[in-house]
Specification:
Structural class: mainly beta
Helix content: under 10%
Length: 121
């Protein structure tokens, strides 16, 4: 089980079930939302995802016809990304997990827009 929370602590969640894969997404929307070179996510079954505290503090932004980005409206922490075309999965942000995620990151998405200022592995 994964557990996570936002910066202010108002929202906490749990995600049961296996991590299907973890990824770094370099799309420009993830860069803008995270204020970083990539958005980093663990993809888990949405059936096992639940808010333990602060569900009323979560706002979703429709960043595309099918993409929804969830964040805490108090502190702005990015919590998840989900697709309306694939409702069986949800991608929780690695940076909000407690304890820190220690699994592998298997995928890098949209590498064509990966910022040149990021260090090479």
């Amino acid at each position: 089980m994964l557990k996570g929370s936002c910066l202010c602590g108002g929202v906490s969640y749990r995600a049961d079930g296996p991590v299907h894969h973890a990824s770094h997404c370099y799309c420009t929307m993830c860069q803008k939302q995270h204020g970083a070179g990539a958005g980093s996510y663990a993809n888990v079954p949405s059936a096992g995802f639940a808010f333990e505290r602060g569900k009323e503090l979560v706002t979703e932004y429709a960043s595309s016809d099918h993409g929804r980005r969830g964040f805490c409206r108090v502190c702005g922490s990015t919590l998840f990304w989900r697709s309306t075309q694939s409702p069986e999965a949800i991608a929780v942000t690695l940076g909000t997990l407690e304890p820190s995620y220690d699994g592998p990151v298997e995928r890098e998405l949209y590498t064509d827009t990966k910022p040149a200022w990021l260090p090479v592995r």
